[in-house]
Design brief:
heterodimer, A: about 270 residues, alpha/beta, Elongation Factor Tu (Ef-tu), domain 3, 2 domains, six-stranded antiparallel β-sheet, six-stranded parallel β-sheet, 5 helices, 12 strands, about 20% helix, B: about 130 residues, alpha+beta, five-stranded antiparallel β-sheet, 4 helices, globular
């Protein structure tokens, strides 16, 4: 394990926070969408846990994470330690790993120019915050859509950053930076969400066709979503993955884990539950 | 051999609320909410001036559910939450978890609560026996 420092903490809610870790020897190369294993001492042992990295590989100052403190049925050990940690506390980390990374080439070796649709449930948004910043910083010309699902409006952890990225897309023009961000709130009837006027329901419902045969996602991008023009990346609870695949499998979308004989697929996912 | 199926019967919230309201003259209100703040049913005693506006009722339910959710973070140490009281000058709010829902009861303040709670628990237990 390498050494670093918790350089920034920001609580968004009692159980949701943004954490930055500054490595002692600098941020190593990694790919957008990967995770990092963090470690903190507990009773003379080191407790480890992996978290998706929300910062981009181009950010060489720190790793950033958005982390939910799940406490039921039992509080997570490392996450509890993180939420008790102070800025300046030392922390250990292992090298970045994980396969939920952006495909730049197709199975046949050609450049992948398909639209990228990212579906993040809760803190499953983290890899796509990394995606968005990386694709922006590397001047990628693909169309990118980030969809974030949350129960409450105060869980829309990167609303400002992603809205700014969309506004930049509008200002610059799609030919220079083509980015859209939408969120869905699954408990719209709750008091905290009373002023929410965006999409209501589960995030994967962006893929559900309306009576006219168009899904909200298709209305957003202005064309039919097909396996030929769109690549999906999904991260969240297994229910989010399953819900997404319920819509996509009927449209001949195939996941990386069940790729075709020629190696092609259109859905990459990672579940954390 | 077929698998045994568990038959889940939703409580008759209307009847439960009615029974609870009628169990004590000190009870002003009884209602059930689910964990998404939806009021499944509620009953109020007739001819009482409301203490909260509709907007404030929504806010009050939100605070109650927030507190309930947070209290459940100690279930692994302390066991299930059974009851809470909040006594204001003008009213006392009682919450009792019931089958994944929350029973909200308001009573007059500064009364002897034990017999009221016993009656409510008896009504809830009687339903569970059905």
């Amino acid at each position: 394990m390498e050494n670093g420092t918790i350089s920034y903490t920001q609580l968004l809610r009692e159980d949701l926070g943004i954490f930055r870790v500054t490595p002692d020897d600098g941020v190593p190369d990694f790919k957008a969408g990967q995770f990092l294993t963090l470690g903190l001492p507990l009773e003379s042992k080191i407790v480890n846990r992996a978290y998706s990295i929300a910062s981009s590989p181009e950010n060489k100052k720190f790793f950033e994470f958005v982390i939910r403190w799940v406490r039921r049925p039992l509080p997570g050990r490392l996450t509890s330690l993180l939420f008790n940690a102070k800025e300046g506390d030392k922390i250990s980390w292992a090298k970045p790993a994980g396969n939920l990374t952006i495909n730049d080439t197709l199975a046949n070796g050609e450049k992948d120019s398909r639209r990228i649709v990212c579906i993040g449930g809760g803190t499953g948004l983290a890899p796509f915050v990394s995606f968005a910043q990386h694709l922006h910083d590397t001047n990628d010309k693909r169309e990118i859509v980030v969809l974030h699902g949350a129960s409450y409006v105060d869980e829309l952890s990167y609303k400002q950053l992603l809205t700014d990225l969309e506004n930049e897309s509008i200002d610059k023009g799609k030919d220079k930076w083509n980015f859209k961000y939408r969120a869905a709130i699954s408990r719209p009837e709750e008091w905290t969400n009373r002023a929410w006027h965006g999409h209501k329901g589960r995030i994967e419902q962006f893929l559900r066709s309306n009576d006219a045969g168009k899904s909200p996602l298709e209305e957003l991008v202005g064309e039919k979503i097909t396996a030929e023009n769109t690549m999906f990346y999904v991260c969240g609870w297994q229910g989010t993955i399953d819900g997404t695949m319920d819509y996509l499998k009927n449209k001949n979308f195939v996941t990386e884990k069940n790729k075709r004989e020629d190696g092609s697929y259109e859905v990459k996912f990672e579940s954390y539950g | 051999m077929g698998m045994a199926e568990e038959i889940i019967t939703e409580p008759n919230y209307e009847k439960l609320c009615s029974n609870i309201i009628n169990s004590s003259e000190h009870i002003r209100f009884a209602g059930f909410v689910n964990d998404k703040s939806k009021i499944l049913h509620s009953s109020e005693r007739d001819n009482l001036d409301p203490l909260l506006s509709d907007h404030e009722i929504g806010m009050s339910i939100h605070y109650t559910l927030e507190r309930w959710r947070k209290a459940q973070n100690f279930t692994f140490r302390l066991g299930k939450e059974r009851l809470t009281f909040t006594e204001y000058d003008q009213v006392t709010l009682v919450t009792i978890p019931f089958k994944g829902k929350l029973l909200l009861v308001s009573t007059e303040p500064r009364i002897h609560y034990d017999p009221i709670i016993e009656k409510i628990n008896s009504i809830l237990t009687d339903w569970e026996k059905l």
